[in-house]
Design a protein that fits this description.
16 helices, mainly alpha
Length: 324
């Protein structure tokens, strides 16, 4: 069995050795930059771990796993443009370092580089692997569209929010695990269990990520604190606050949400103070914990030995801050 560090090294090596045309170096420079500035490579590592659950020969999954990471970073490049985010992983975003047009074009080519990586999947698994990836890719874009739509909506339900983050974040985690399992030779039941494990884990991770935007350390998190608040993003803390707030508190919250050209730091300060009054952090943590419990229950049903699951359990536990 491979450990997380071994698998990350394999992914990093594959990404480093990707071949590019040298006809337009300005197109590829941002691609090499975004793929070289770090990250835990969680999605490709999970794909390789899922493969390793069912097979000791994981070499056939390395390039498809690299493709998952290229696609993920492609979405980050375009998300950063849409969010006007200046920093990613404590370094300038591509559109900040170059310009918006360059970021769009270099992001576009990453989608096709990812496709090339998936063509390295075993021939007998190629259609199922590519279908799983394409379905997830379309859903990720759908989730991003819903996220943008909801910024202009006065209120959304908890179910709408959960569906949005399932599409935007969780499905790529799910697809990564299913792709790895399929390449490793898993039966349909087990690949589906791993997909659902990833879905619940991804939901918990995104809820926790939304919390980090509010209560996290920006130096550790690598993003400006309160960005979602300034953008009026409908995260679970805001939805819960709108459900629980009454009277003057509700009025104050709505004033902040409808204010035109507010001072960003003041808006963040006021809304966080409202969240603290309403104990939003505790309520949000409870929702994340419920998804975490469901995820590990599903993983327990996968028909391989507990010993073979240990590395994946440890990775999942570290991802959501829970020892297993």
């Amino acid at each position: 069995m491979y450990n997380q560090s071994d698998l990350k090294d394999l992914v990093d090596k594959a990404l480093l050795n990707l071949s590019y045309s040298d006809e337009a170096k300005k197109l590829i420079e941002p691609v090499s930059y975004i793929l070289s500035i770090g990250g835990k490579r969680l999605r490709p590592v999970m794909a390789l771990m899922a493969c390793n659950l069912f097979s000791d020969k994981i070499g056939k999954a390395i390039m498809p796993a690299a493709g998952i990471e290229v696609f993920h970073n492609f979405t980050l490049v375009h998300d950063d443009i849409m969010d006007n985010a200046p920093v990613r992983r404590n370094l300038p975003t591509i559109h900040s370092k170059w310009n918006v047009n360059q970021a769009i074009l270099s992001g576009d080519v990453m989608a096709f580089i990812a496709n090339e990586c998936f063509l390295h999947a075993p021939p007998d698994k190629l259609i199922s692997v590519f279908h799983t990836f394409n379905k997830a890719a379309i859903e990720v874009c759908t989730g991003q569209q819903l996220d943008m739509d909801y910024e202009k909506t006065s209120a959304i339900t908890r179910q709408q929010y959960l569906r949005m983050i399932e599409l935007k974040t969780a499905v790529l985690v799910s697809a990564s695990l299913k792709i790895g399992a399929l390449i490793g030779g898993a039966e349909e039941k087990d690949s589906d269990l791993l997909y659902e494990f990833g879905r619940n884990l991804g939901l918990a991770f995104q809820i926790q990520d939304d919390m980090l935007d509010i209560w996290g350390d920006s130096q550790v998190f690598g993003k400006t604190r309160g960005g979602d608040i300034v953008a009026n993003k409908k995260t679970l803390p805001l939805i819960r606050a709108l459900e629980l707030a009454e009277g003057k508190v509700l009025k104050q919250l709505r004033e902040q949400l409808s204010a035109k050209d507010p001072d960003p730091e003041e808006k963040v300060r006021i809304i966080i103070s409202i969240y603290d009054k309403l104990k939003i952090r505790e309520a949000t943590e409870k929702t994340a914990d419920d998804y975490i419990d469901s995820a590990f229950t599903l993983l327990g049903k996968v028909s391989v030995s507990s010993e073979r699951k240990k590395e994946l359990e440890n990775l999942a536990g570290s991802l959501i801050g829970r020892d297993r």
